[in-house]
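Usage

Read records sequentially. Each one opens with the input sequence:
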Amino acid sequence: MKHRTCKIVAAFLCGIAGCGMMNTAYGENAVFVLNGVTVTGERHKGRDIFKYNEKAEKIPFSYSVIDEKDLKQRGVSSLKDSLNYTAGVVGTITDQALFNNSTIRGFEVDHTNVTLNGMKMFGGNDRRTGYSSGIDTLYSPEMSGLESVTIAKGAESVHHGAASPGGSIDLQLKKAKLFPSTKGEVKFGSKSHNEETFDINRPLTVHSAFRITAVHRKYDLDIEKSSTERWYVAPTYHWEVKDKMEFDVYAYWQKDYIVGSEEPLKEKIPSMSSHPKEAIFSVPSRLFFGIPGKDGMDLENRYIGYQWERPIRGDWRIHQNAGYMKADAVFRKTGVMQIGKQMFFRDYTDTTMKADSFSMDTYIYKEVKHGDVHHHFLAGVDLHRQSWRFRTLEKMLSPWKVSDILKGKMDVGEINDTTKWDDIIQNKNISWEKAFYVQNVYEKGKVSFNTGFRHTGYTTGEGKKEVFTVANTWQAGVSYDHGKGWHSYANHATSFKPNNGMYTIQNEEVGPTRGVQSEIGLKYESPHTHLHGTLAAFHIEKQNYPVGLRRPQGFYTTVDQMISKGIELELHGEINENLELSFSYTYADRIYKGLKPGIESIYLGGVPKHAVSLWLDTETEDREKARWNGGLGLRFLGERWCDDKIHTLSPVLLVDASLRYKKDSHSIRLDVKNLFDTHYYTAVRIMNDVPYGFVGDQRQVTLGYSYEW
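and closes with the structure output:
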């Protein structure tokens, strides 16, 4: 391991040392369009998910950008909230309340598909395989520290390596700016919500700036006697020499405390059970089964990363992006299992987890224009290393009778320090992902061709336990300019995801999961207003998907083919100077082929066949130059299957609202999510033959005041 550590340190030093060389000037400044905003003279290579500069309407892939303005307008407080008004995305929460568990185009997105500044952080296999060992719960992004969220839809392995075929999410941290600004904000709301945020940006010289964002937030969770608290500090540094060099450093420290249980609210549904009269259905859904002052979680994240770009010779430029994250977590939880109809057995587990993740991406880039020919070429290498280790200890607690629970006479069952701890799990893992890739864009007249290829090697384990997988992925797309802002496109792309460490009952390796996507679409970019839209039809195949066997445990079988196909329509931008629109419609259907007997249900419930969302935001100005802003959002989730593939959830309409007032440096805002407090289930899961409905977000009201100068 020593030589690998030295390689990482050397790579960091070489990357920073390269920043000192800046002799050659750039070519002409880029002009590109993202999310309805035209930017001229700025180049942030690698700061979009496709790495190269190109107008959004000419990129033959479907993707969505939620920028800082959108995040503020909608009062976004979590990653799932930011995804609510995006076509093809369902930002539901199922397993843990604070972490991402969304789907893109019908396929689940674990943290393998979530990148930070274009760099992979922690990730594992999705929860259906049961192989992740909790590593996905080590990163919960702070939305106040982000300036954008980009959702790339479809097979994206050419850009970021191992991934689900549904798509990926890239989070961009706030960048220091070359102008001064200061903002302080306080918020109060339901669930005992209180929050303080500071964002200070200061130019240091005409070429450099420093920014720091700090957040403190605390509120109650759904389960009784449970709450969460977060501290977040993020300094950033920016340095540039116009047309020659850009260099950014990002860092943050984040600490989360959870007292009680972080589990989302879930209710047992007797109408879907084959045993509706069992006493378990009488137990209150918000009941805290744990030990006050003992159950909870402490999670600490530390991150540092950098990006730089400079010209090297002629039209060639070089870009490097790197990031390192370290996480330490302690999970303390009381588990409950029903024995018979009237008794609960309880155990207490203490899990310690440590993990770190390092990513680096370096590529050279050339952009040439000759008459009506516009050519981009990009070639690079990247690597990602992550390691984690955890240990779980267990103690048995006194059992509970259901009759005592209903009478409120439960024995809390304090942990006896003399009771022996059982060391039930110890595990560690190291994985490497190394790749070489090329991308090429050739534009002549009205036609633009986009191709890409990636060769990836993926290693898990060390020494005799090391498992190595190789995968080649590619993409090809074409776009045609019809004039007046209209572009049609088509693409074909592949993806892969390793399943190292998974074996069939015949003791054979499962092999990687592969994805194949075909897509055609139409894009529109208004030449007169900041309005753009995409209409896309897609067909995705997920092949060789592993599913854990119930018996014997620890082995896997595979689903030959999972197919997701559908249509997406998305419009975003300004209708006029006082009205902004975000509209999306999604039709999605899934088919399974090659299902084998003896496997657990693999149907990912909660994904609607039809979904519609609409957000309207308006602005008015009174005689005293004070501004009123109002936002209204409608979200329709159509009928969706439960995990048992027998029952369905009824359609639901949700309403969100925002009212904002600003005069001079003072601002007041009122945000309401789920305005009418509609009760609904995001999904229904069958656990131990009992159907549980995961309750969707209840009404949440926050009132905030901010002062900026």
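Summary fields computed downstream for this record:
- Residues 1-47, 125-134, 276-281 have pLDDT under 50 and may be disordered.
- Residues 2-425+440-708 form a domain with the Maltoporin; Chain A fold (CATH 2.40.170.20).
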